[in-house]
Design brief:
CATH superfamily of the largest domain: Dipeptide transport protein
Protein name: D-aminopeptidase
Pfam family, one: Peptidase_M55
Enzyme class: hydrolase
CATH class of the largest domain: Alpha Beta
Radius of gyration: 18 Å
Order of helices and strands: EHEEEEEHEHEEHEHEEH
Keywords: Aminopeptidase, Hydrolase, Metal-binding, Protease, Zinc
GO molecular function, one term: metal ion binding
Helix content: 25-40%
CATH topology of the largest domain: Rossmann fold
Strand content: 15-25%
Number of domains: 2
Shape: globular
Number of strands: 12
Length: 274
């Protein structure tokens, strides 16, 4: 059985603020070790319950955070940037299911370090339906017919997952106090809960439905300021909605919409304060 893991960092237990997820900050190395341990707990549980082929995609920032020298021996790791499909690189129709670890709530929502790709994004929309990284990644999985069976992250990410994908198993590894303060479970307890929920998720894998994306989706990205919209609008095929900082792109399918989102957010990130 083939399983795919997309692993972000903001939703890992104990990681409360940017000092744990920014490679320039003093808590980052601690964050990497905790992140790798959480992945190992998930991989071990998946192996115990029938997974024979496990691909782990490091999906945070420059995507080189996981410590391969400490990674579970049954996992294969995708590490580094640039990736054509970023947080879902390597995912295709050959996988039986996907697991999202270390996930966070979408931009403008309550949650620990909540955002959508870059901090300049207020909202992503697919056909006027607001989504975040989790939703976009689940749509790509759904394009390939792959269900997401487990999401682990802060309590707000768990709520978002349950609304987005009814029946999905979740582990809330920490409780939001504010965007940079959390009430955390220790890794040993989190790892135990992940193991339990992996078992439950694997038992219902045949009942889980993929999140099917719409055909020819309209992507809209609302940015924090007009300068970011101007940068994003440099991509051919985009348009700024008059009187807003929202940029649109009509895609042929969700894969094209996903790559358009990557290009638009990378361009928008060039915007300076002055």
């Amino acid at each position: 059985m083939k399983l795919y893991l997309s692993v972000d960092m903001e939703g890992i237990t104990g990681l409360a603020d940017h000092t744990f997820v920014d490679s320039r900050q003093h808590n980052y190395e601690r964050g990497r070790r905790i992140m790798t341990g959480e992945v190992n707990a998930c991989v071990e549980a998946l192996v115990q319950h029938g997974a024979t082929d496990i691909l782990v995609n490091d999906s945070h920032s420059k995507m080189n955070n996981l410590l391969i020298e400490e990674l579970h021996e049954e996992a294969v790791l995708i590490s580094g940037d640039v990736k054509p499909y970023s947080m879902v690189q390597g995912l295709d129709q050959t996988y039986d299911a996907a697991v999202f670890l270390g996930y966070h709530a979408r931009a403008s929502m309550k949650g620990v370090m909540s955002h959508s790709m870059i901090f300049g994004v207020r909202h992503f929309y697919i056909n006027d339906h607001p989504i975040g990284e989790m939703g976009f990644n689940a749509y790509v999985a759904g394009y390939y017919g792959v269900p997401v069976i487990l999401v682990c992250g802060d309590d707000q990410a768990a709520l978002e997952a349950e609304k987005l994908m009814p029946g999905v198993k979740t582990v809330a590894v920490k409780e939001t106090i504010s965007r940079s303060a959390v009430k955390c479970l220790p890794p040993a307890k989190v790892n135990q809960q992940i193991s339990q929920q992996v078992e439950a998720a694997m038992k219902q894998i045949d009942q889980m439905k993929p999140l099917t994306p719409p055909d020819q989706p309209l992507l809209k990205i609302e940015f924090a300021n007009y300068g970011q919209a101007e940068w994003a609008n440099l991509m051919p095929g985009t348009a700024i909605i008059e009187g807003t900082s929202t940029v649109t792109y009509q895609a042929d399918n969700i894969l094209e919409a996903y790559q358009a989102m990557l290009v638009m957010t990378e361009l928008a990130a060039r915007t300076t304060f002055c």
